[in-house]
Amino acid sequence: MSAPPAALQVPVPRRWTARDLWTTRVTTGVLLLAFAVFVLYPLLEIVARSFWKSGAFSWEHYVEFLQEPKLFQTVWNSLVVSSLSTVLTVVLAFGYAYVLTHTRLWGRSFLWLVGLLPLIAPSFVQALGLIFLFGRNGLVTRTLLGLDWNVYGPVGIVLGEVFYCFPHALLVLYTSLSAVDASLYEAAQSLGARGWRVFWWVTVPSVRYAVAAASFLVFNLVVTDFGTPVVVGGDYRVLATEIYTQVFGLQRFSMAAVVSVALLVPALASFGLDGYFRRKAAATLTGQSRPYAYSPRGWGRLAAGAFAWGWAGFVLLVYGTLAAASLVRVWGYDWTLTLAHYRFDAVGVREVLLRGLQLSGLAALCGALLSVVVAYVVHRLRPWGARLLYALAVLPAAVPGTVVGLGYLFAFNKPPLVLVGTAGIIVLSYVFRFVTLGTLAASAALQQVDRSVEEAAQSLGASAVRTFVQVVFPLLRVAFFSSAVYIFVRSMVTLSAVIFLIAPGLELPATAVLTLTTDGKLSGAAALSTLLVAVIGLVVAAARVVLRVPVVFR
Amino acid sequence: MDAELVLDGLTKRFGPVAAVDGVSLEVAPGEFVCVLGPSGCGKTTLLRLIAGFEAPTAGAIYYRGAPVHHLPPQERNFGIVFQSYALFPHMTVWDNVAFGLRVRRLPAVTVRARVAEMLALVGLEHAARLYPSQLSGGMQQRVALARALAVQPRVLLLDEPLSALDAKIRVRLRAEIRRIQRELGVTVLYVTHDQEEALSIADRLVVMWQGRVQQVGPPLEVYTRPATPFVADFVGTTNLLRAEVGEDGGVRWGDVLLEVASPLLPAGPVLLAVRPERLRLVDGVAASQRNCVAGVVEAWTFFGPYVRLHVSANGELLAVDVPQEVLADAGLQRHAPVTVHVPPEAVLVFPGRP
User: Is B144 part of the contact surface with chain A (CB cutoff 8 Å)?
Assistant: First the structure.
């Protein structure tokens, strides 16, 4: 044999060329640094601030927080409205999803679209709609019933949150309910079970993890939501808005940090539990299932129809009211039709909308690209630090927007990185807040790609970079575009983080709506909201038609 | 002649499991070697080690005397064809074949000429502008072959390239692969679980089982002189019979004393291997002759040119292949008594029992 003996071992075998390993390490390093700076550093700044008093470590801010009844009350308030909204949302969404998956009710695809409608609206839009219906000058409360009661306060928050969270819960529950195999029902029925018994013995056990996941998801969304309580909360103070009040109302930055930490606890816990139950639910899904659907008769048919169409009607009523309110002179008093509210004299709406589109569009492209790169590095190149990178990419979804905003305000208002007041920081906050879903979508898509396709490229001599650019990226095109659409929509509607970051001349559509609302120009706010929802709806529809991209949400 | 590719004690462990366990092999230039084994025997892992997608736990790989097992796949220049074709779905056939050439930054003229040459070689000139999804499975695999060969690889590795195809296309394409291999003189390592495919295509067979090489040799040798009972059973069909060698050296299969063509054997348990086509049916009157055993036809399987009888004899079920007309002529029925003759030279003896 011409070969040297086996004892002459050559250096460690490797799967990539030296250049590939080098580019991988540099890329991973840059990504880790970016996530550390724009995800971890702001959070650490908040925690540090909450423990910092005149140059030393101190519990004093926390003691103050606990001793101030009004402040501590916000914790209780947050938990109350979050729990109530969670129960209501999950019950309603379960019923809706059940009707959509298990019956052959007429108009199901229309009901499905209406159910998902709130996804493309900022959370405060439903709150605004509720104000026009049930507020001080509400159509129902004052004009029709002449009541003194109005919706401001906990009732308004809960109602608004139910609207806002409904589609999120619906997506989770619909997926799970449509995966219950028809053979289970047929087996139960052939064994003599019927009606409620089948429901309790087959349906409920099959979807229990999904119900748990949906509950924690909704709890997380509500406890972190800023838009609804700020518009319809009145004097009822919750954690998410309290951070804002402490900063802009009272200039108590350290107390804002303490409130942020108090908000982080339930937010992180519910996010973690959501993920836990989601994995459990995914594990119970079998590869293929035949959906089960029947045509209910008699009272059942009436109840299912009344419920589903009732809810859809209510959703349409709220949005319709908003659109109507933007078109009449003075809501509740002067019903003459007018386009005056669409003039937006004060806010320079064209620039604001254009700026929103530009910044969200930029964030969408950067965020989607970042997602795909992170997924490729984590799942295929698997360098040292890949798990940490993945954890950092998933973390942002758990952090409340107001906390992110406050953290950015703390971290990037001083050297070495002075970014507050620039458009750049707004884009960065979008990218790093919404990168999670993109990364999850790209990872899922990557698992579907046959590994031997990449191996073929490798054995033909392609480097890691070339394999990514010419082979992997084209195969992840759909995931890239759907992530981009998602990040775009979320960036357009988010209010909580950017409210801390906008500067004069940098107003965004969502913050402009809030300004109009707090100035009492509700009709103007309605007009701008209607415009915003219409623009987002157009972009999503265009993405579906032009790119043929399914739009995914969580 | 110097070996082109040498595997020396190649081992790959996944945790406690050795998927490839001390495999040594020498492949001559231009040789067509088939690695044959049941699924899970480690043959695909062996191929992935050679291609560079897995790092060996121990052992070495040499190409023309130089170690290559430390090199990443990009630097080995071994072509590979996968069972799943692994074509780039977003590129045309032409771009797929040109991929490796472009990676090597060859001038456009060279790329064009080479792609045209490769497409002509696999007979797909007309499909250059199509996408893989517009082609049949057989055509896709030919594109994969052209893509791998375009860069003039040192060795061509094929991982069950025909398993996903229909039987007829499989036979046609394997002849084509063999023709192209002869035309280009490329060294080929071909992994398959299909013994008929392996026997018909290879210069040399490597039979693997449980991560180890069981036998290496030309197809005819492996078929007629299997080295182990596993090889005898896996390659072709074999009757494996438990027998005993007595102190006198006589081979005793149950009550029957068999004459075998093997040299003198030590006393103890043995396994006898006899191919079904070597067994003969003889007239009942000859039943008292040597090496004859009486039995009863339990069932038969029709294979076209021949029929496989399942004869219960001496407490075991023997497979006996007879020409199809014998069945018709003899008018055999189920439970018909027959006499089976075991030619001494047809019996292989393996000492001990697995």
Answer: yes
